[in-house]
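Tutorial sheet, problem 5. The four components below are modelled jointly, 288 residues in total.
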Amino acid sequence: MRLSSRSEYAVRAMVELAASHGAGPISIREVASREGIPEKYLEQLFRKLRKAGLVHGARGSGGGYMLTREPHTISVADVVRAVDGPIAVCDCTSENRDGVQCHKRSLCAAHPVWDKLQKGIVSILDSTTLGDLAGTSAGSDPAD
Amino acid sequence: MRLSSRSEYAVRAMVELAASHGAGPISIREVASREGIPEKYLEQLFRKLRKAGLVHGARGSGGGYMLTREPHTISVADVVRAVDGPIAVCDCTSENRDGVQCHKRSLCAAHPVWDKLQKGIVSILDSTTLGDLAGTSAGSDPAD
DNA sequence: ATCAAATCAGACTAATTTGGTATGATTTCA
DNA sequence: TGAAATCATACCAAATTAGTCTGATTTGAT
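Model answer (structure tokens):
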């Protein structure tokens, strides 16, 4: 039930782009140094985000990345899926399963929780957008 | 966001025990064959479950494992924590973090989603019991 | 007493995933 | 032309995962 560093990094990086949306491309170097993410690793992530159509890459001097859509139309789930693939609590609840079911035949007794969990996770990630996060700035969270 | 096979197996095994609760100990061999789980692997898991106080192990011939509490008082979260440790979406939302925060200092912009996600996951796993899944008794809502 | 069935315990291992690095090519602006 | 940037792929070490192996100990039944 852990988030990969890919997803963590990617979401943070995307929130950076969201916060500066409309102000031209931002370079990997810039984002990496602001967020404390290894540059070359972030480069990989941005390539995946680009292939998923979430960002546009501007090459050459003065280049960088920009969101392709408005921040409030890109969900955290979009970003997570782009870098980590389909969200899947287990095979039988995966978003990309090919008719895979518990025990290959019938549903196991535990299936209802996994299903509920899967839906709960997707629902939260789907309903939170980069716009939400970019607007809710760091340090403003009263909890914890 | 994937469940480990440890958790999957452990929950399924515990539901087996729950379904036969009160009918004496059930052996690993029995559970393993019913659920299609490697025996020796399941043995490890049951040892963790015992150390967590969720089951009692009866040694010797005719032995096996039994739940130490009523099925509807053992949550799926209890089982998951027993075999996989504290539930943690990321370090800064982990159930056992030692004051660890995003960037070691302030909260990152993404923190609100991770926090929401963590709470959502724990809430679902906490509120579903082995009794619910086994279908035995004491009427909580059947998931899904 | 002996034997078989079972838990107990820990070390070991193969494969996969994770979290990166390294190298170099290509594009673009100045 | 040169620097700044993305693009692309290959490589790698460490950790994790999902087991297996070996053997000890306990207990019930013959």
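Marking note: The radius of gyration of chain B is 17 Å. Full credit if you identified this.
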